[in-house]
Amino acid sequence: MEAQDVSEREMEVLLLIAKGMIPREIARALMISEKTVRNHIGSIYRKIGIYDRAQVVVYAVKKGLITVQEL
Predict the structure, then answer these.
(1) What DSSP element (H or E) covers 22?
(2) If 65 and its partner were Cys, which of 42, 57, 58, 60 is the partner (CB 3.0–4.6 Å)?
(3) Is 64 exposed, middle or buried (0-12, 13-18, 19+ CB in 10 A)?
């Protein structure tokens, strides 16, 4: 996954995942439905081929998509 492959909203969701939020909390924070959050998470997983929240965050940090300071 490269930065250009991820939508702006997916990046917002990814950052909130990295902060430890669950889909319900992310939905409230972004004022979208929980189903939409789950769709974004699924899209992120498919784009990088990783299906584990912790590993997605590690991957995003390694690739520079999010920084430790943002957390």
Answers:
(1) none
(2) 60
(3) exposed
Q: Quote the Cα angle for 14-19-24, to 5°.
A: 75
Q: How many domains does the chain have?
A: 1
pTM for this prediction: 0.87
Closest CA to 29 of 42, 4, 12: 12
| CATH number of the domain bearing residue 59 | 1.10.10.10
- CB-CB neighbours of 16 under 10 Å: 18
- The token pair at 28 is 């409230």
